[in-house]
Amino acid sequence: MSNNELARQAATGRRSRQPRERDGIDVAARTSTNTDSLATEQKGVLELRGGRVIVMTERAYILLLQVMYEHAPHVLKYAFYDMGYRAGIDMRAALAERADDPERVFEGFVEQYTQAGYGNLEITHFDLAAPEVRLSGTDLFEAGLAPKAGIYRTPRVVDHYSRGMLAGFMSELLKREVVCEEVACQFRGDPRCEFVILPFQE
Amino acid sequence: MTLTPTYGRAAPLPVLPAQPRDEEVAGYFGIEGLDALLPLGLTYDSQIMSIGATGVGKSVLAAQFLYEGLVTGDTCVYVACDEPLRNIRLHMAGFRLGTVAYERSGQLLMLDAYGRELSTEARVVPNPSSLDEFFLYEKQLVGEALASGRRVRLVVDSLSTLLATNAPADVIHFNGHRLRYLRALRVLTLDNFVADVLNEQTMAGLAHSYPLILRLSYQRGDGEMTRYLQLGKLKSGQFSAGQHPFSIDPRTGIIVQG
Prior knowledge:
The complex is a heterodimer.
Chain A: H1 3-12, E1 21-22, E2 25-26, H2 27-30, E3 46-48, E4 51-53, H3 58-71, H4 76-94, H5 102-115, E5 120-127, E6 132-138, H6 141-149, H7 160-174, E7 178-184, E8 193-199
Antiparallel strand pairs in A: 1-2, 3-4, 5-6, 6-8, 7-8
Helix pairs in contact in A: 1-5, 3-6, 4-7, 5-7
Chain B: H1 32-35, E1 47-52, H2 58-72, E2 75-80, H3 85-94, H4 100-105, E3 108-112, H5 131-146, E4 152-157, H6 159-163, H7 168-184, E5 187-194, H8 200-207, E6 212-221, E7 224-232, E8 244-249, E9 253-256
Parallel strand pairs in B: 1-5, 1-6, 2-3, 2-4, 4-5
Antiparallel strand pairs in B: 6-7, 7-8, 8-9
Helix pairs in contact in B: 7-8
C-alpha cells in the first residue's frame, strides 16, 4: 500500500480491511492496541493492510527539509519532485481498477490527494485532447510549512512534491510524459497555488 | 526604417494573480553555492556579465537564473542568440522545469535572435546583426514584460554573438546605452559572453559597464579538467572573489563545491 493511501485512510479514519492471517497467526489476536485502522503486530510497529506505516509529524517534515537543505541544497526541489512523481505513479496503480473516463479517474486522484491531507485541491480545467490540466489549491502542506522551514531566501513556489505527484499520476494515466509547473503559490503571497500540466517538450 | 516585429501570442492562460513589483526584494541566481556568495542578493537594477569558454556552463547557469526568476514570480525575458529556442526548452525540461506553462501565461517571453527567416517562433529578430534592430526588439519585449507589473529579469545568451560582427567602438557605445536603459527600468539582466569571441580591448570596455562580473573557467588539475567560477565587481579593481570549483549535474544543474 502506498504512503498516500495510508495517509488518506489515516486522515479519513476509514477502516482497514479485515486483519490478515499471516504465518498462521491471527494478526488481530496479537494486536495490543485499539483501532481497526492501525494494527500493531509487535511493540513499536504500526501496520496497515499488511504494510508497516510510520506517521510523520509536521515537525519531522520540517526537520527533513532542513537537513536535506544543509547537506544537499541543490537537490531539494528535484528530489521532492521525483518523490512526488513516483508517488503519483503509485497512486495511479492503486486506482488501476478505475479504468473509466480519464477525467473521472483524475478527479478520484485529486479527491484522494485532498483526503490525505496534502491540501485542498481542485481541477479548474481538464482537456484530454491537448492535453492540458490546470488545478488550483489552498492550504497545501508544502506551502503551509515552508515559512517554518526557514530555508528559502525569497518567497517562491515550493510545492514540488505536489507538482511531481500530479505529473507522475497524469503521465501514467495518459501513458505519455508530462511536466507540471506551479505558476502561483501561497508561500509567495499569491491567493492560491496554481498548477499547469502540459506534455513534456519533445 | 519602420520595423514591425513578428510578435504573436499563444492562447493565454487565465490571468494569474500578479506579483507586485517589490523593489526591495533581492534577486538570486538560484544556485545555492553561488547565492551564498551574495548574502544580500542582487538589486533589480543590476546587470551581470557572465564570461566563459564554450561548454563551461554559461547556458546552464542562464537557465537556472531564468528559472529562479520564474519561481519567484518575475516576468522573464529570454533572448536566444546561439541556438534555437527549442533547445533551451528541451534543456530546461531535462531538469523537469517546463517552460511552456510560463510562456502561455505570459510570465516567460522568449525572443529568437538566432533563427532569422527560418525561425518558426512567435517572436523573432529578423536581422540580429543590426544592433539597432536587436535593441528595438529587446526594448519592445522588455516593455511588454514591465507591463505585467512584476519584477523583470532578462537573459541574453549570448550577447557576444550579436556584437561580434560590429565595430568595437559601436559595440561599446551600444551596450553602454542598452545597459543604462535596463538599469533605469530596474531589469535584472544576465548577459552571456563566449570567451575570445570579442577582442580583449573590447571586452575590457564592455566590462566597465557591468556592476557584476561572473567568470566561468576550466582548470587542469590532477590530470582532470575542473570547472570553477569567480564572482567579482569590476569597480573594486580586479576580481576580488576566490575561485570556486563547480560541477554540472545533468539532473540538477550547477553545483558549487562547498
